[in-house]
Amino acid sequence: MKIYKADLHTHTVLSPCGDLDMTPRVIIETAIDRNLDIIGITDHNSTRNSKVIRDLGYESGIFVMTGAEVNTREEIHCLTFFETDDQLDEFQLWLEQNITVIPNSVDRFGYQLVVDADDNILDQVDNMLLMALKKGINEVEEHVHELGGLFIPAHIDRAVNSITSQLGFFPPGLKCDAVEISSYGNYDDLSERYPEIRSLSVIRSSDSHFPSSIGESATQLLMEEINYREISMALRGDNGRGIVS
Ligand SMILES: [Zn+2]
Ligand SMILES: [Zn+2]
């Protein structure tokens, strides 16, 4: 088995708060530069830039986990990942059907751009992608798993938009494939306050909105090789795979 370096939380030009430099090519080039093996593309409530980055990564030796950072009805951010285009398309449709529709203010939040591999703008999303879905965290988790995806509550230590900030507790029955702690989060403090996380794998990611922060925080995955199945097993700690701290 080998150790692979993954930063599973990266935004693109599609996220309103994502820098306009966060184009597919820049993200992949920066990932190579930072010696990452795997990146996750997780725009707010949309998967629409993830496939193009996956394809670009494939040509460059960077494995891309395609998904989104969902904002639940409780305003909890959760990372979600899917393996196939069919799963991604179905999830994208579900996101569009369930997001609270409010027009984006470009002046206030920035552009939300769907782009191709050459930075051409294919579409501009008019509704604000930061809004909450009409679905609660349990419904999101169930739907993601029904589709065969991965569900990871994001930056659970943060004072806003985290499972702990919004609920004040960690729901014991929630089926998580892992949990994410932000760069400066303290695991010992968290696991003391929320013992439910002790049985879960913990990832750390950069939550990059700018190229300079890609790979600043990362997770080391112990696996046989890089593919979606191996990454899923490493996140869950199955079959000898796991996360190396
Ligand atoms: Zn977030
Ligand atoms: Zn994020």
Summarize the structure.
This protein is an alpha/beta fold and 245 residues long. It is built from 8 helices and 11 strands.
Strand content: 15-25%
Order of strands in the sheet with the most strands?
7-4-3-2-1-10-11
Mean pLDDT: 96
Number of helices: 8
Number of strands: 11
Largest sheet: 7 strands, mixed
Backbone structural class: alpha/beta
The N- and C-terminal alpha carbons lie at a distance of 16 Å
Helicity level, as a percent range? 25-40%
- Compressed to H and E, one letter per element, the order equals EHEHEEHHEEHEHEHEEHE
Rg over C-alpha atoms, rounded to the nearest angstrom:
17 Å
How would you describe the overall organization of this protein?
With 245 residues, the chain is of the alpha/beta class. It starts with a strand and ends with a strand. The chain has helices at 24-33, 50-60, 85-98, 106-109, 137-146, 163-167, 187-193, 228-236; strands spanning 2-10, 38-44, 63-71, 77-82, 113-115, 121-124, 150-153, 179-181, 202-204, 219-223, 242-244. The mean pLDDT is 96. A seven-stranded mixed β-sheet has the order 7-4-3-2-1-10-11. It has a two-stranded antiparallel sheet with strand order 5-6. It has eight helices and eleven strands. The longest helix has 14 residues, at 85-98. Bound molecules: zinc ion (2 copies). Residues 69, 77, 154-155, 161 line the site of one zinc ion (ZN).
